Structure formats: C-alpha cells, structure tokens
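To whoever is covering the structure queue this week,

Two jobs came back overnight. Logging them here so there's a record in the thread.

Job A:
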Amino acid sequence: MAPRGKLRPAFRRWRAGRPFWGGLLLALGGAEILLTLRASLDVVLHVGMQGLAGYLLPAVMLLCGVLILVNPTQRLFYSVIGVLVSLGSWLTSNLGGFFVGLLLGVTGSCLAFGWLPDQEPRVSRRRRRKEARAARAARAAGTGGGTALTSG
C-alpha cells in the first residue's frame, strides 16, 4: 500500500486528466434514481416495458458516468447520452428520482460536455492577489523615485 503522501498527488493527477465532477455527478444521479425505485422485479416484469425502462434508464446513467471517468476521450458521446437519458428518467422513474437524480444527471452531463482536456488549470484568487502584490512591490522598488523618459 502506498503511503498517504504519495497517494493524494497521484489521485489529483488522475482526476485532472478527466471530467471527474461531471462523471461523478452523472453516476450519482443514476444511483439515486435506482435507489428511489422500490418495485420488485416481479412487479416490473408484470407492468411491462414502462417498468423496465424505470430501471434501464438510471442504469444507463450510472454506466455513462463511470465511462466518462474511465474513458474521457469519448466524454462528448457519453455526456449527450447521459443528458438524454436523464431527461427521459423524468417520465419513467418517479419524476427522475424526485428531481434530485434528474438534476444531478443533467448537471453532471453538462459539466462533462464542457470540460476541456488541454486547458491550463485555473490559478486561485489568493495566488493571483499574491502575485499582483509582488508585482506592485517590485515595480515600486524598481522605479526608485520615478524616472523620466527623455527623447533623443
């Protein structure tokens, strides 16, 4: 087992290379809808296709969320399927898991769709302020008392 000090940076590198929050929210939305369905399999088979779709759509949501995490190169396809299935769960699965699973699925799909793999990581506001203060201090120290430019 790797020590804790090495495991956390490895997880952060793995997470930075994929739309982590989008895939996680989509998978959580599918899991939430599956957990809100309380009918047994006998009832589902008796009701027919409508009852089967109540289990099938959240399972596809869960699968798309996991596939976004595992295979981020196909995130556009999985996120489009995820948002369509999430919206379809509104009709088939207790109003999309009482709107919670529906909103988690749509939000996760949109996050995965909008994720850009080659984008530079954002710099925190605290770091930008610190760099701005350092630049102002360097400018103030470098100018001395204000030098005038003379034209030749």
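Job B:
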Amino acid sequence: MSQQPASAPVPARQPLDEHAAASARAYAADQRAKVDVLASVLEDIAANGYPSPETGMPWETARDEHLARLSEERPRVA
C-alpha cells in the first residue's frame, strides 16, 4: 500500500489584481527577511553556544527600547 495520500483535485484559483499581488509579494519578502535573521541567530547559537549573560541585554531593556522606537514611528493625531 502506498504511503502517499490520494491526490485531491486542485480547486480553481482566482487571480489577484496587480496591487494585491504586489502587496502579497512585499509581505512575503518582509517575512522572509525576518526568518533569515532568526535562522542566522539560531545557526550562530548552534555553532558557538549561547552568549554570555554579561554581554547581553535584559529583556526588559530591549522591550522598553523597542516600544520607544515604535511610539516614535506611530503617526499622531493632532
């Protein structure tokens, strides 16, 4: 008996307009870049071990700095 599942018919797809397709491609590129960064960090940890706690940054400090950056980028209503 085969271990492969029976192939189901592929439903017809509806094409996207140019703007939607460009948006989907931009989102995919953004997500791919984020995953590439994560993968490189994990590869570094696998090759060299965890960084020393003395050389790192407490997560609270990283969180506060990230939130400060986000609040600077957010448009404000007058």
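Note for Job B: Helices lie at 18-48, 59-73.

Please reply-all if you pick these up so we don't duplicate work.
Q.
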